[in-house]
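worker-03 picked up job from queue 'complexes'. Input manifest follows; two sequence lines, order preserved.
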Amino acid sequence: MTPETTWSRSRWAGCPAASLAVMLFAGGCAHHAQQPGTPMPGEAGGASEYRHSAAVTRLALGRPAVHASEFGFTKVAGAQGVFAVDDVTGAAWGVMNADAPALKVPAFSNVAGEHTEIAMRYFLEAGLPKDQVGGAHVTTLMRGGGAKAAGASGMQVQFVGYSTVLERVVAGVPVADSFAWASFNQKKETTAEAVYWPAITAAVVADARELWAKLSDPEREKAFRASLKVQGLGDSPGKVVIRHSNATDRGRFVAFASYDVLVTPPPGKGRGRILHFDSRGEERFLAPAPVASKRAPRSEKD
Amino acid sequence: MRTRGLADVLRRRGLRARGAPARRLHSLWSLLATLLLNSRPAAGQGVTVEAADHYNGNGPDIICIAEADGFRDWVQFQFPFFFFPHPHFVSGLRWVENDVWDTDLMDPQRTGNGRDDDTHEFDRPSDSMTYFCGHGTCNDYTTQRCTTSTQCNRPQPGQQLPGSCVSAPPGGGGFCAYNTPRLMIMANTPNSRNGGIVNYSNGSVAWGESVTAGGWGGAGTNGGVNFAILSNSCGLRPPFFWEEAGALLAGVHVLGMIMPVDINSSGQSADDVDAPARGAMVAFSYLVNSSGSVGLAWAHSLNSLPQNDGSGCPIGSSSYALGGGHGISGCGAQVAISVDADEGSAEWHNGTESWWGLADDSLDARGAGWLAWFATCNYDCNRFVWRLP
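worker-03 finished. Artifact:
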């Protein structure tokens, strides 16, 4: 059997108080009892979880802060924004109000490396395991506009700020669906942030390490690709990663070592697709199986 | 420049003020609607999606339904009580696979064809938000090398001027792209009028025209969508915001799109790739903070998508050393676009409008004088400009 992590987590699992609809934050949920902003010890050989928390966030919440539970989140809401931790997955999200003054503060830096430095320090000081950080990169928020009469030639472009995304690596293997990212302004506050860094079991890590070692040999990779039941991979590049349920998935948690292949159609023939194969060569799906339209087949209209 | 009256400004400020009376009433209504009218779409609050995974020869299989469903399922999250007041959204239509028709997306007033019916499908007066996920086509670029956009004056068949010298890391020149009609592609079915292909740059598509928006868009006043997401291949190329996407906006407050940037000498273009979690990531911004910016929710959602989803930047790169991925192969961005009569109003929709505004047609755009946008690039597009002047 292919090693993988799965466990059931119903929509309100671990948070019975949430089913009572509204509650003031009182630490009633199982997840809330965990220490804030610290790595959760994992099993030997596995990768520990990190949970970001209101205790360590630098999100420019403003005051006063109100604590509440709704939509399956434990929230801290201030005058300028909301910091929320998902009661089921443990993922953390910081979203500013649209008119928050903190969003008008200039960016921390217009040099990507400087932004990455402060973001890296922020997460590591908050407790994110340093040995699971393989690197970091920026994304860039830009804005602009122009009058219709001017069209493309009159389109203005302006830098707003960077976000730095930390890259998770376990035993040398990237963990694709984990993330920790933040955007800092000049006051060294974050104006957006999100963290999802779940535990990975020892079995999955071992499987990933083994698959990585095996497919580092071009001949063995070639043989592995030949064994895959999916046709049409051609020379599409593949790589070994750990995949797991995404941060918005409150269903059964799944993690597995994957050989991911990006299949790109010929130029101009549509968008690309990422296929996942486990260590046995079986195709795996992270997205739920689609259901058909919810009404009877449509008939011709007038 | 046309400016809005004081009443408009105050109304907008009221919507943004936490705990304003109008908002409390809205919250009460949301609560009642949830309890009593759970299965009935309230006016202007529906969420409609159209998405296809299979294309009957119009393109390879992809994963789109999960992307659109993720948005729909979470943004209309049903929960009978909540602590903070929230705008309330309900189920609209959900058409997938062969139930996605090209006529659903086209505006009959614009096309003059009675079979086109966005009024009852993708741009219904009772809807607030819509999400289309499907194929597109990347026929807007060339392998003409350039160092300035003035050199881009040789459009290929199907392309037209102006041209743009599109550049990306590591810099040192670029390739020419041209203003080219952009397409939404779905399966070709017997119910299709145009082979499952919709041109949204030529005026066939107009979203968001309502009674309060007025008929300035030439699309009647029978629309209702205020936040539309269009996830397709090569949806837009910089800087052709007006030329390729402008006609879509006829009252809609915010339009989310995928914008590939770079091109290489092998004839490859950056492009959208499957990102099943994209829609849900946007919806989670609403669940976390409904007073947050809609435009930024779309733009920021790129950050939470795996870098592994999509190849490195520049296109053709085997590493992510200079960026890439996050739902896009090569260098690209998720862009939120707003159009209104004047700069201030367009900018307000684009950056300051929260989810509260989406269920309110009275905030609809009143003209097409100015286009504002926010974009999150999957690379350092501050250091490496996407268009050489």
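worker-03 released lock.
Chain A touches chain B through 87 residues (CB under 8 Å).
Chain A has two domains: 4-196, 202-284.
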